[in-house]
Amino acid sequence: MLKRTRILAIILVTMVLFGAAGSASVQAQSPVSLSSLEVKLWPEYDKPGVLVIYTGQFAPDVKLPVRLTFAISASIDSLGGTAGIDSQGIFRYRAPTTVQSGDQLLVSYDCPYPAFQFEYYYNPIAGQGADRQFEYVYVADYPVQNLTLRVQQPAGSSNFSATPDMEVGSAEMGLPTVTRQVGALPAGGAASVAVSYRKDDLRLSIDQLGLPTPGTSPFEDAHKPAASNNSTTVIIAVVAGIVIAAVVGLTIWSGSNKRAEGRRPISAETRTRAKKKGKARATSSPMPAPQAAGDSSVTGYCHRCGRGLKSDERFCPACGTPRK
User: Is the pTM of this model over 0.70?
Assistant: First the structure.
């Protein structure tokens, strides 16, 4: 019975462990989709090259928090902001982690907010003299229902054009922009734009307009470990806790059964059998009979067993009792 119960307990623990691992796996694979995403290109704004800005909104059915991962070229100049945007429109900067995979850089960070902004700098600008041109290709990391491409015209530039044809958009930071509504795009889908312009003034846009240099903000989650590590740690901790609890429980349960068996009352039948066995042992080894009184060699008797003792016997040869 004990062996069978232990087997059942082991099976139960195994099922719990697989259930915990399965639920963690499902949570880790929860799909992420975007209801909208605007990709902005700001050439020669505050650094040489192009500032790329993703501003996105999660689809309503996406469960927060989300572990965002963006695959970009490993040849970027630097990262910009990695932030979530709360329901009040306030930017909440989050600590990123980066991993290089071939010619790509994977940038990840946790976002517990309904929207996000991700920025990086790279320099695809080519040309001779004052003539500039570059091409940008966006590859969707997540499916998006409504994608918009927006390009800012650098300060002091002329002959600005973008293809495919783009419409005039609202100004940003006091500079004109052009936009294109791409629409829905699946994960892995691509949208591109080619930009050209002439720029005789080599100063950056913020210098020409007298704008302040963008500052840096502290990460609100800088004291916390990365989410991927959190997930792994939580899974390991849960599994270890279940295993330890199961082992301790089985040990305590087994020990209590053994103690209970040791405390079981002895039945009257068992007591009677024990008494009979004791009597049988006692009668199987009778005391030696004393020798006849007429034996002239006997000068005394053992006070314990009654055997006759000769004059030279200091101890009873039958039971070893000293002679008195």
Answer: no
